[in-house]
Amino acid sequence: MNKVRIFDTTLRDGEQSPGVSLNVQEKLEIARQLARLNVDAIEAGFPIASTGDAQAVQMVAEHIRGPAICALARSRQKDIEVAWEAVRRAERPVIHTFLATSDIHLTHKLRLSREQALEQAVEGVKKARGFTPEVEFSAEDATRSDWEFLSKVYAAVIKAGATVLNVPDTVGYTTPGEMDELIRYLLENTAGIENVVLSVHCHNDLGLAVANTLAAIGAGAGQVECTINGIGERAGNASLEEIVMTLYVRQDRLKAETGINFQEIYRSSRLVSQLSGMLVQANKAVVGQNAFAHESGIHQDGVLKERLTYEIMDARLIGREEKVLVLGKHSGRHAFARKLGELGYHLSGEELDKAFERFKQLADQKKEVTEADIEAIVSDELSRSEELYRLDFVHVCCGNNILPTATVRLIRDNGEVLEGVATGVGPVDAAYKAIGNILGLSSDLVNYTLQSITGGSEALGEVIVRLAGDEHSFVGKGSSQDVVIASVTAYLSAINKMSSNQMRRNPQKDFQEKQSWE
Ligand code: KIV
Ligand code: ZN
């Protein structure tokens, strides 16, 4: 069996998904989960891109132990210095520098000759090697580059000290056959390649990212770059769970394995979906809601007789079975905190108090509290870390033959009490309009989803909303057995994220006075 390294880029390329914006706390929580999943490397961000990104990389580098922590940088001196500053406290810091090598990018985007690009790539790697012994170089748009030139660039960066060479299919253009040939070509024709790790990074524009990644592994790649749920730029990146489970289920043919802890796959998928607001489609392989559901009678009959008739893997292997907590309404705060620790969450102080209070309320009302319920509660508390407005009171009046009306009271962080009333087409619309009246904003709600966490009418309802800001959008999440409260909580959480972003960018202005994002 060949060992394949899993390089996870959920926090970097995954966060480049349109509409996704994670705060530092959320990134740290995902990084903790990736460490439990046992990925080999976490690409934590692109520090030169924003101070938020730099901070997140720094936090991940300081707090996460186990996987190598990587920071992305263009092949530019300043980028590399900023990347190093962010990642330097990691146990195993990696700088990942990249420069495009295709003529399309060189001519139209960078306006560099091939010679200039080669020189810049080498300078970048040398600079990075001055900081850390682990340096990855990516030839952006490698799969549309001239193969001879590509191999020349890789040979030059190996000489300059690169330890990993990455082959990105930046625009998801290649096919499995072509990827196989390219990897074999590079392995045969690049001087010094036997001393470094060859990696691939595939995008999914034609739905081939996983197939291309597997083809590269078959041809000899030693590392693959991927994201949880396949999130990423445009159609996304290769999905970690699909690669890992294909290697496991078809080890007879693929003869390669990873060090991934399968039990953590489903939890990783749920966490990333909740925090990013990117819902997983029901028919998504491995982690989709229907991936192990059998609808037809013939299939159900077959599975009842023998699971292997229609299932190629066991859902329990990836941690999908619904676990009912041994905790109940009589459990204490310590037992609850210990259980959270077992689930991998680290809450303390006020966050822990609030989560515990909500757990008690839920345990009082619901026969069985599941791990999924607890995850929903905890991720709510985590996304509330930067709360400018807190919900104090919401009352809605609705039904048939009545105009839905909502009264909402919010408390600002300075103690100010804000109240508003509005009518709407339904209770959620009325509550959102009441909040809009209070804060003087006309909501630019681009997305609203509601789903139940478990079955039954007493289940927690989980709402995810996305609000459009001037530069990017903000995701808010809320869960409650009352869907109006879940909706209001999610809306406020997105507003709080938007407002703290506004205040970071414009600290001297009062958020309520700032109208530009309306
Ligand atoms: O898709 C791409 O080319 C990238 C590189 C920065 C590796 O994300
Ligand atoms: Zn990419």
Describe the protein.
It is a single chain. The protein has 518 residues and is an alpha/beta fold. The chain folds into four domains: 2-276, TIM Barrel; 291-319, no CATH class; 333-381, no CATH class; 389-504, Double Stranded RNA Binding Domain, CATH 3.30.160. The chain is 41% helix and 19% strand. The strands form four sheets. Strands 2-3-4-5-6-7-8-9 form an eight-stranded parallel barrel, surrounded by seven helices. The protein has a three-stranded antiparallel sheet with strand order 11-12-13. Helix 1 (24-37) links the parallel strand 2 (5-8) and strand 3 (41-45). The longest helix is centred in the C-terminal third of the chain and has 23 residues, at 483-505. Residues 13, 98, 138, 140, 166, 168, 170, 201, 203 line the site of 3-methyl-2-oxobutanoic acid.
Q: Which SSEs are present, and which pair or pack?
A:
Blueprint: E1 2-3, E2 5-8, H1 24-37, E3 41-45, H2 51-63, E4 68-74, H3 77-87, E5 93-100, H4 103-110, H5 114-129, E6 134-140, H6 147-160, E7 164-169, H7 176-189, E8 197-202, H8 209-219, E9 223-226, H9 240-249, H10 251-254, E10 256-257, H11 265-276, H12 297-305, H13 333-343, H14 349-365, H15 371-382, E11 389-397, E12 405-412, E13 417-423, H16 427-439, E14 445-452, E15 461-468, E16 473-480, H17 483-505
Helix pairs in contact: 1-2, 1-11, 2-3, 3-5, 5-6, 6-7, 7-8, 14-15, 16-17
This protein binds 3-methyl-2-oxobutanoic acid (KIV) and zinc ion (ZN).
